[in-house]
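in:
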C-alpha cells in the first residue's frame, strides 16, 4: 500500500486536512509509491502563522548561534547522506551518481550558510562629519517562502532556506508535489539539530498552495525555480502584493564548439550535459552550435555514444541515465521529438518507444540526437527538459554568438576552444548569467551565485551565495552624533559635511 505523506508545520508532522491528495510515483516502475496531501489556503496560513510566531525569537538569536544549528544539521546530513540520496532517487528517478552529486551540492550551500556571522558584517565609516559616524547592517526580512521544482528535490530547496534561515528569517517551503520526500526528512533533521519550531515549515501542494503564498501579506519574499510561464506568474503576482522576488525560469543553454576544440573533451562534456539527469536540468545543454567544419565529426562521434548510454533504474550503479519523472512528461518530450521530425530536422538517434525488460511500466526515454536544427523550429526555441540534443550549424564565431544571444533564454552558455582570445571574447559578449569555457555545466559553487539573464530570471537577485544574503536581508544605515557643548543651532539645509 502506498505511504501517506504529511506536511511539517511548527516542528511537527501534520496530516493533510484539505482532503485532496496527489500521487508520488516511482519513475522506474511507474507505480504510485506515496500519496501527498495538497494543502488548502487555510493550511498554508497555518504554516505562515507558525513562521510568523517563530520570527522574533529567531531573528534575535545571535548569528553565531544560528550558525551552530546549521553546523549540527550538517553533521546529521552527513550521517543521513545515503538515506537522503535514496529519497531523491525514489521520487525523481535520477541515477545514483547524479543523486549523490545533487546531495553534495546541497551540502555545500549549508556549508556556505554556516559562515553567516562573517557574511552579515556591515561597514563602518568614522567621521563622516565632525563628531559624526556612519555604519550599515543587514537585518532579516521576516517570513520568506520557497517554491521549488521536481528536478532537484534536495539541492534547489537548499539553495533557499539555509541562507534565509541563517540570515534570521523564518521559512515556508513548498516543494514540488512530485518529489516531496527529501524535504520532509530534512525538516525533521533540522528539528533534531535544534532549530526552533516554526523556523522551517514544509507544506505540500499544487497551484492553490502557491497562490496562497503569493498573496499572503505576512510573506515578505518569494524564491522560485521552475518554468518561465510559472516564473512570470510568480513574479508579477508577488510584486503586485509588495514582495521581493527571485524567480529563476526556463533555459535553452547553448554550447559553441569551435573548429579547434579538443573533440574528445567536447564529446565528454556534451554527453554529460545533454543526457545527464535525462536532460531534466535547467543547466543542461540541449543545443550544440557547431562552428565551421566541426559539425560532421561531432555528429559522427556523438551518435554511437548516445546509442550506448546505459539506461536503467536509478539505484542500479551501472545506470548512466534514469527515467523521466512522470508519464505525462515523457509524452511531452516525445511530442517535441515528433515536431522536430515533422519540421525537417535530421533525427540521427531516436530514443522514442524505449521499454526496459522488468521495468516496462517505467517512464524511460532513450537519448535523442538531432542534426541540422534551424532557429525557427520549436525544438530549438522551447525548453524540452528531456534527453534531446539539437546540433545547429554555424559558419563563423560571430554568427554563433549572435545566434546564442538572439535566443529568448539566457541561463547559461559554454564554449569549447583552444583559443584564449576567442574564449575571452565569448565570455564578454555572450548574454547569459553563467558561462563555461571548456566547462559544459558552469554551475557556480555555493560561495558564488546562480542565475540567468533575459527570460531565465525575473527579479534582481541571483540565488544562494552572496546574492542570496543580499536577497534575504534589508540594508540599514545608521548615522550618529553624540551631544557636545555647542550644537551649532538649527539648520534648514540638506545636511552636508562641515
Amino acid at each position: 500500500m502506498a505511504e501517506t505523506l504529511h506536511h511539517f508545520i511548527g516542528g511537527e508532522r501534520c496530516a493533510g486536512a484539505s482532503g485532496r491528495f496527489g500521487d508520488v510515483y516511482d519513475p522506474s516502475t511507474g507505480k504510485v509509491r506515496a500519496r501527498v496531501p495538497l494543502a488548502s489556503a487555510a493550511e498554508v496560513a497555518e504554516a505562515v502563522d507558525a513562521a510568523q510566531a517563530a520570527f522574533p525569537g529567531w531573528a534575535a538569536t545571535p548569528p553565531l548561534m544560528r550558525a551552530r544549528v546549521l553546523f549540527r544539521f550538517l553533521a546529521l546530513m552527513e550521517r543521513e547522506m545515503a538515506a537522503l540520496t535514496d529519497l531523491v532517487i525514489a521520487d525523481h528517478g535520477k541515477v545514483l551518481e547524479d543523486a549523490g552529486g545533487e546531495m553534495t551540492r546541497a551540502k555545500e550551500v549549508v556549508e556556505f550558510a554556516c559562515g553567516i556571522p562573517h557574511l552579515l558584517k556591515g561597514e563602518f565609516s568614522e567621521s563622516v562629519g565632525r563628531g559624526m559616524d556612519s555604519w550599515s547592517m543587514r537585518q532579516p526580512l521576516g517570513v520568506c517562502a520557497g517554491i521549488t521544482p521536481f528536478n532537484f528535490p534536495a539541492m534547489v530547496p537548499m539553495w533557499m532556506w539555509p541562507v534565509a534561515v541563517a540570515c534570521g528569517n523564518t521559512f515556508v517551503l513548498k516543494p514540488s508535489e512530485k518529489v516531496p520526500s527529501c524535504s520532509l526528512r530534512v525538516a525533521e533533521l533540522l528539528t533534531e539539530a535544534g532549530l526552533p519550531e516554526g523556523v522551517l515549515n514544509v507544506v505540500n501542494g499544487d497551484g492553490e498552495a502557491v497562490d496562497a503564498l503569493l498573496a499572503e501579506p505576512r510573506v515578505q519574499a518569494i524564491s522560485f525555480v521552475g518554468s518561465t510561464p510559472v516564473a512570470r506568474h510568480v513574479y508579477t503576482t508577488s510584486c503586485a502584493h509588495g514582495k521581493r522576488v527571485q524567480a529563476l525560469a526556463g533555459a535553452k543553454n547553448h554550447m559553441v564548439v569551435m573548429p579547434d576544440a579538443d573533440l574528445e573533451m567536447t564529446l565528454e562534456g556534451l554527453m554529460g550535459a545533454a543526457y545527464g539527469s535525462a536532460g531534466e536540468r535547467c543547466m543542461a545543454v540541449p543545443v550544440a552550435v557547431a562552428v565551421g567544419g566541426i559539425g560532421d565529426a561531432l555528429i559522427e562521434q556523438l551518435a554511437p555514444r548516445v546509442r550506448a548510454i546505459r539506461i536503467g533504474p536509478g539505484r542500479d550503479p551501472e545506470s548512466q541515465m534514469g527515467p523521466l519523472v512522470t508519464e505525462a512528461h515523457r509524452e511531452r518530450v516525445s511530442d517535441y521529438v515528433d515536431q522536430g521530425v515533422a519540421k525537417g530536422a535530421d533525427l540521427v538517434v531516436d530514443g522514442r518507444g524505449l521499454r526496459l525488460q522488468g521495468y516496462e511500466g517505467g517512464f524511460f526515454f532513450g537519448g535523442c540526437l538531432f542534426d541540422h536544427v534551424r532557429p525557427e523550429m520549436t525544438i530549438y526555441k522551447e525548453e524540452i527538459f528531456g534527453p534531446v540534443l539539437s546540433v545547429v550549424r554555424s559558419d563563423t564565431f560571430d554568427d554563433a554568438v549572435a545566434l546564442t544571444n538572439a535566443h529568448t533564454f539566457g541561463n547559461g552558455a559554454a564554449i569549447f576552444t583552444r583559443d584564449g582570445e576567442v574564449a575571452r571574447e565569448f565570455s564578454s559578449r555572450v548574454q547569459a548569467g553563467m558561462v563555461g569555457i571548456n566547462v559544459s555545466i558552469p554551475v557556480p559553487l555555493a560561495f558564488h551565485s546562480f542565475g540567468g539573464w533575459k527570460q531565465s530570471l525575473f527579479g534582481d537577485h541571483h540565488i544562494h551565495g552572496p546574492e542570496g544574503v543580499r536577497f534575504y536581508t534589508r540594508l540599514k544605515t545608521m548615522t550618529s552624533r553624540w551631544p557636545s557643548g555647542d550644537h551649532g543651532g538649527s539648520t534648514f539645509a540638506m545636511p552636508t559635511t562641515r
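note: The chain has a mean pLDDT of 96.
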